[in-house]
Amino acid sequence: MLLASLGASAQGDLKIGFVNADRILKESAPALRAQQKLEKEFERRNADLQRMAKQVESMQAQLTREGTSLADKDRRNKERDLTELSRDLQRKDREFREDLNQRRNEELAAVVERANRVIKQYAEAERYDLIVQEAVHFSPRIDITDKILSTLSDADKK
After folding, report:
1. Average pLDDT across the chain, whole number
2. Using CA atoms, how far apart are residues 33 and 49, in angstroms rounded to an integer?
3. Can you tell me the mean pLDDT for 21-44?
4. Per 3-state DSSP, what percentage of the chain is helix, strand, and coil (rounded to 5)?
5. Residue 75: what pLDDT?
6. d(CA 154, CA 4)
7. Which position among 3, 48, 74, 84 has the lowest Cβ density within 10 Å, counted as fewest Cβ atoms?
């Protein structure tokens, strides 16, 4: 690695940049828009799950309060209804999380693809020799994340 560095510096100064991928995925305009899109897309299902959870809670509280005064048959029926509703809630919650994760991964993949295109265009325009997205250590002097975020935001406005 040192030899490659020396060979490249013999040809001239290397221009190296660093992009914080986490910041791009959290702060960029496309990432924020993707998050809003997902929230809107899953809003109704999330509200339905919250309603079901409250219903389970209410049934549990009612069974706790009235369970001892109910006839055995009525208590068993209420317990069975509560168990079925709880199972249904767990199943729907699991499906919701799986669907949300799948859609989040799809949206993040699109954001990453777009960010990589912008980074490559920026690197070519500014004549960078190397841009890295992961590093154990980097100097703030080579951090171009703010410039990439700005470029992504400007590209959205067009």
Report:
1. 90
2. 24
3. 96
4. 80, 5, 15
5. 85
6. 36
7. 3
Q: Give the residue carrying structure tokens 């020799």.
A: 129
Question: Residue 23: which H helix or E strand, with range?
Answer: helix 21-27
Instruction: Round to whole Å and give the CA distance between 34 and 27.
Output: 11
Query: What superfamily in CATH does domain 10-157 come from?
Result: Skp domain (3.30.910.20)
Strand ranges in 34-149 using DSSP code E only, listed in sequence order: 130-132
pLDDT over 50 at 10, yes or no: no
C-alpha distances out from residue 149 to 25, 107, 125, 142, Å? 10, 17, 16, 15
Residue 12 φ then ψ, to 5°: 145, 175
Give the span between the Cα atoms of 8 and 144, in whole angstroms.
Answer: 21
> The whole model's pTM is what?
0.75
